[in-house]
Write a structure and sequence with these properties.
With 243 residues, the protein is an all-alpha fold. 74% of the residues lie in helices and 2% in strands. It has a two-stranded antiparallel sheet with strand order 1-2. It starts with a helix and ends with a helix.
């Protein structure tokens, strides 16, 4: 319990000591720039893990945390399909949505790396002091629009390959026509936008998990990494934990 409390307090302590921190073994001063370099390198590792996981085959499809469901707006359409024993078609439809998200996620890495590279020292200090999710929120604000631009063509291409929209759009258009007379709520037939938004949202969920792993136990999360900046961060953590 005591050790867990120390881990939870690591980032607060670092902010207090960041101006002139010392490795207890070497007495080498560690300044802001080195700490932020370590933070950037650590975030790059977290990004790499998240993108690798999401862009793999079944990265979305078999991960219940980020799996794309049948569009919520079209829940009645799904219920009708299942009512008529169209379970296989529904599953194939959902699978295609997730395959499109997995394909689009391959475009994310360079966008995230650029955002991290452009991060200022003040940005880094705010992230260190911001608690869980602070880095993820920063990246979300800095990259979402660019991710949408990069993801949309990939999603569109993946959906067009199986001609999903050809069957989906007429179905939804008919559903919306009926709604005009019944007073029901219309459904947006744009699957490209739906998959793009869900793919980006899922990716940020994974990034948040990776970020919080590093916050809770940097030595474990960054095991095997020899980069000087990361070793600097791990050294600071280590010296604090020994006290």
């Amino acid at each position: 319990m005591k050790k867990n409390t120390l881990f939870a307090s690591i980032y607060t302590i670092i902010i207090i000591t960041i101006t002139f921190s010392f490795n207890s073994n070497t007495n080498i001063p560690i300044g802001n720039e080195e700490i932020i370099k370590g933070l950037k390198d650590a975030l790059n590792i977290g990004i790499e893990n998240a993108v690798k996981s999401s862009s793999a085959t079944d990265g979305f499809w078999k991960n219940s945390l980020i799996k794309l469901p049948f569009p919520e707006d079209a829940k009645k359409v799904k219920e009708t399909a299942l009512k008529f024993k169209m379970n296989g078609q529904v599953e194939k439809f959902e699978n295609t949505l997730n395959r499109a998200a997995e394909e689009a996620s391959k475009e994310a890495t360079p966008i995230f790396i650029k955002a991290i590279k452009n991060m200022s020292i003040s940005d880094g200090l705010a992230i260190l002091n911001g608690g869980e999710g602070a880095a993820t929120n920063h990246l979300q604000n800095a990259t979402t629009q660019e991710l949408k631009t990069a993801f949309l063509p990939k999603v569109k291409s993946a959906i067009e390959k199986v001609e999903l929209t050809k069957y989906w759009k007429p179905l939804i258009d008919k559903y919306n026509t009926v709604n005009r007379f019944t007073g029901g709520q219309n459904i947006n037939p744009d699957l490209n936008a739906y998959v793009t938004d869900k793919a980006i949202s899922g990716l940020f969920k994974l990034i948040a998990i990776e970020e919080n792993k590093i916050r809770k136990d940097p030595a474990q999360a960054l095991t095997g990494i020899t980069n000087t900046g990361i070793e600097t961060v791990k050294s600071v953590f280590g010296s604090i934990l020994k006290k």
